[in-house]
Amino acid sequence: MAFQISYSLTILLIIFGISQSRAILDSLYYQKTCPQAENIIYQVVRNATTYDPKVPARILRMFFHDCFVRGCDASVLLDSTTKNEAEKDGPPNTSLAAFYVIDDAKTKLEKACPRTVSCADTLAIAARDVVVLSGGPNWVVLKGRKDGRISRANETLTLPAPSFNTSQLIQSFSQRGLTTKDLVTLSGGHTLGFSHCSSFEARLRNFSKIHDFDPNLNPQFAQDLKTKCPKPNRDGSAGHFLDSTQSVFDNDYYKRIVGGEGVFLSDQSMLLDYRTRWIVEAFARDQSSFFGEFAASMVKLGNVGVNENGEVRVNCRVVN
Length: 320
Ligand code: HEM
Ligand SMILES: *[C@@H]1O[C@H](CO)[C@@H](O)[C@H](O)[C@H]1NC(C)=O
Ligand SMILES: *[C@@H]1O[C@H](CO)[C@@H](O)[C@H](O)[C@H]1NC(C)=O
Ligand SMILES: *[C@@H]1O[C@H](CO)[C@@H](O)[C@H](O)[C@H]1NC(C)=O
Ligand SMILES: *[C@@H]1O[C@H](CO)[C@@H](O)[C@H](O)[C@H]1NC(C)=O
Ligand SMILES: *[C@@H]1O[C@H](CO)[C@@H](O)[C@H](O)[C@H]1NC(C)=O
Fold this sequence. Notes:
Blueprint: H1 2-19, H2 37-51, H3 55-68, H4 99-112, H5 119-133, H6 166-174, H7 180-187, E1 194-196, H8 219-228, E2 239-241, H9 252-258, H10 265-269, H11 274-285, H12 287-301
Antiparallel strand pairs: 1-2
One 2-acetamido-2-deoxy-beta-D-glucopyranose (NAG) is lined by residues 88-89, 93, 96-97.
């Protein structure tokens, strides 16, 4: 009997261990040490969003960049030093902003529960909050990440580029343990926010020997983008919103792709590949299935390269 119990327990542990291969994260991680942590973060993020409606898009993208470079370890939050150029000063950083929101939350967290809540967890929680505040799905954030001590500008070159086709995107996601479905789902983050011309203008003029603009762009939309991004003279802040409801978390992004209005080649390419097209079309038809999948894929994104051996930074911009 005792043998049977310990035997079943072992089996259970094995199954649990496999399905939770990153079992170090836990939904109740701060329940004893800082039960008010999530509320503190939520209040700061909500207040910041009422002052600046760009905050949700910026925080969501920041979390993606954090997790894709060195795992979700808050490496994206570190400032450059005289000896080291950090990720936030790497090339694809044009729209990385709103770091002050994470700083504000962290200052309040340090007052309430000193040296307890990591910057990586703070960003993961804030990323969930901005989706909720924008009308998107809610989910339970797993916690217990530690903050890394390394951040290198050149490693941002390993982020997927907006010029990537679906094969390249699938490869980039699979290198982080994310599936093709996660790729299509998480790209739905582009339901929020804005892009500068530089990220898509190669599609607009001189696209190829036989095409002036990318033939997969809706011609009317291509004309729109050209007007927004005139050549040669324009100001560096010019660009376009990533879907037509830039502050609302909804499935409009997928509807735009189906209509040939994906802003990046990477967005639009998912309609051309049989491995992703069906998912794009399903999400364009059914917002609730997108919401359910988005919540699940964000949890998976939050598990990428989680760091157990780091520290809890006091100031998210510098290592302790
Ligand atoms: C699939 C590969 C992806 C590529 C190639 C990509 C690329 C880009 C680029 C080039 C920009 C615009 C930068 C600029 O010019 O200002 C952008 C913006 C954005 N991305 Fe992505 N991204 C990807 C995936 C994701 C994911 C997974 C998320 C989050 C779940 C995300 C969230 C955002 C958001 C919210 C913005 C708008 C930022 C703002 O308005 O400040 N992206 N992305
Ligand atoms: C709310 O956000 C604004 C703008 O960032 C800031 O000036 C203000 O201090 C914040 N208020 C609270 C209570 O955090
Ligand atoms: C982006 O990187 C450039 C240098 O490559 C730097 O001058 C700029 O401050 C960075 N932007 C942000 C928001 O960190
Ligand atoms: C970044 O630079 C470091 C040296 O500073 C180098 O060891 C590393 O391989 C580079 N990484 C990439 C992705 O280029
Ligand atoms: C995707 O891009 C890569 C690199 O440019 C290229 O080798 C590959 O043929 C492309 N795949 C498709 C399906 O277009
Ligand atoms: C298109 O490319 C050709 C040859 O590469 C160049 O001569 C021409 O100026 C380009 N046109 C535009 C509008 O950039």
